Amino acid sequence: MIKVVLCDDHAVVRRGVRDTLMEATDIQVVAEADGYASLREALRLHRPDVLLLDVDLPGRSGLEILAVLHEEASPVRTVMVSMYPEDQYAIRCLKAGAMGYLNKGGDPADLLQAVRTVAQGRKFITPQIAELLANHLHAPESAELHDSLSERELQTLRKIASGKKLSQIAEELMISPKTVSVYRARVLEKLGLSNNAELTVYAIRNKLV
């Protein structure tokens, strides 16, 4: 039996994933978490084989949690799950140590296959991600400016471009408005932009929102 822990801050999403996994006789959802603190407890108590981890979480993001698990040499095998298309996050997640990447809008059958594949110690790569990896290997010089952004900087970019105020972003990310301002300044500097309007245009052109 493959033991799975789900980590997503949206209860409706967790329920949908859980219902899909419950259709399989060889997979058991042993716990659910809505953020870093509850996830730590779930991992400690249940020692799952596979973790389905949302990329965009309040507080510590999925990629930040993935980095912590990697540093601790956690044995859990992680599949990142996101609403963002593969071309925006998949390679970043795989480089950070994820065993697979799934789009929330994808085929439910891929979810079952991903869990079974990574439980065996193999990476789960969709055809879309395979193509991205191939293009990335053969054209490294085409890297986008936003590839240099940290996870928090990329989150800040997306949220500003979506029209959210710094106070709203601070609340969602569970950090201070001052810290959000620091991330914003770093994003503008790295991308060579001057203001939020230019930042929004950049995000739209690069399909980041």
TrEMBL record:
Among PROSITE patterns, the record links this protein to: HTH_LUXR_2, RESPONSE_REGULATORY
Residues forming the Response regulatory domain are 3-119
Which residues are recorded as modified (4-aspartylphosphate)? D54
Q: Report whether Transcription regulation shows up as a keyword of the record.
A: yes
GO molecular function terms noted in the UniProt entry: DNA binding
Pfam families noted in UniProt: GerE, Response_reg
Cite the entry's keywords alphabetically: DNA-binding, Phosphoprotein, Transcription, Transcription regulation
Q: Which domain of life is it from?
A: Bacteria
Q: Could you tell me which SUPFAM superfamilies the record lists for this protein?
A: C-terminal effector domain of the bipartite response regulators, CheY-like
CDD domains per the record?
LuxR_C_like, REC_NarL-like
Q: Ranges for the HTH luxR-type domain?
A: 142-207
What InterPro entries does this protein map onto? CheY-like_superfamily, NreC/VraR/RcsB-like_REC, Sig_transdc_resp-reg_C-effctor, Sig_transdc_resp-reg_receiver, Tscrpt_reg_LuxR_C, WalR-like
What Gene Ontology biological process does one annotation of this record name?
regulation of DNA-templated transcription
Protein's name in the database = LuxR family two component transcriptional regulator
Originating organism: Tepidicella xavieri
